[in-house]
Design a protein that fits this description.
Elements lengths: L13 H26 L24 H12 L26 H4 L17 H5 L21 E6 L6 E2 L7 E3 L7 E7 L6 E6 L6 H13 L1 E2 L15 E8 L5 E3 L3
Parallel strand pairs: 3-8
Antiparallel strand pairs: 1-7, 2-6, 4-5, 4-7
Length: about 250
């Protein structure tokens, strides 16, 4: 005999419903742990350090240090800078502010005017302006262009380098030229350059090669007081600087 209440509490899928909740909880916990591991979420480290001991400063009641501290305490009063919300009915209770800035009380002193001199003009000036023929200034002569200089240093300091007249330097118009330095070894007897090693660049490689050829084809005059007079025969070493002048011709293309 079937009871009329049999189908009310009899669910065929009750076993599946019982497993859904724990499986959902496990899935949620797994997703949380995976997110923490992937994002490397860690609680902030506690700031542990030695406790700071309180400090108390005692100032004397008079003296320069007391006046210095009192002025700064008064200037640090937050009441002077903080805004206050006051109802309209209590506006009359606000105390009057008699603060006056220091620049309003400063009265700078002015130096007196120099005494005036009542000098009469000369008799010629009383007639009127004197006109005369002023010679026109001579035309301005263009400043001479400074030629490229070769300055020696080290044991060759003060030596004069003789450059052939046919040697010319050329660089592009918009090329900025930097001073070019060489390590130079010269023959102590003849002054002929035996070795020339560039230590930097002028910014234009063809001009660097022209400077190297100039050193190798010319010679330096002997300088008194250098090791070249010792008669050792070894090269005298020094540095040579090319200081570019206005004789460097400018071309439109490199």
């Amino acid at each position: 005999m079937n009871s009329p209440w049999t189908l009310i509490f009899d669910w065929p899928t009750r076993k599946i419903a019982r497993l859904a909740l724990p499986l959902t909880l496990l899935l949620s916990a797994g997703l949380h742990f995976a997110g923490i591991e992937i994002l490397q979420i860690r609680p902030p480290a506690a700031q542990t350090g030695p406790p700071q001991a309180p400090q108390v400063f005692f100032l004397p009641r008079s003296g320069a240090s007391f006046e210095w501290a009192r002025a700064r305490v008064a200037a640090s009063d937050p009441v002077l800078f903080s805004s206050s919300d006051v109802e309209e009915k209590d506006v009359w209770r606000i105390p009057a502010d008699d603060y006056r800035p220091s620049f309003a009380t400063l009265q700078p002193g002015l130096d007196p005017l120099p005494p005036t001199q009542n000098e009469m003009p000369p008799p010629d000036a009383q007639v009127g302006p004197v006109r005369g023929d002023v010679p026109s200034p001579p035309p301005a002569q263009p400043a001479p262009r400074q030629r490229t200089q070769i300055v020696f240093g080290g044991d060759l300091r003060g030596a004069k380098f003789i450059v052939h007249e046919e040697v010319t330097f050329a660089a592009p118009v918009r090329q900025n030229l930097a001073p070019l330095e060489f390590l130079v070894g010269a023959d102590p007897s003849t002054g002929r350059v035996l070795h020339a090693v560039p230590l930097n660049t002028s910014g234009f490689a063809p001009l660097d090669r022209q400077a190297t050829e100039t050193l190798m084809t010319g010679h330096a005059e002997a300088v008194s007081g250098t090791p070249s007079e010792a008669g050792s025969g070894d090269p005298v070493w020094g540095t040579a600087w090319f200081l570019w002048g206005g004789d460097v011709s400018r071309t439109l293309s490199p």
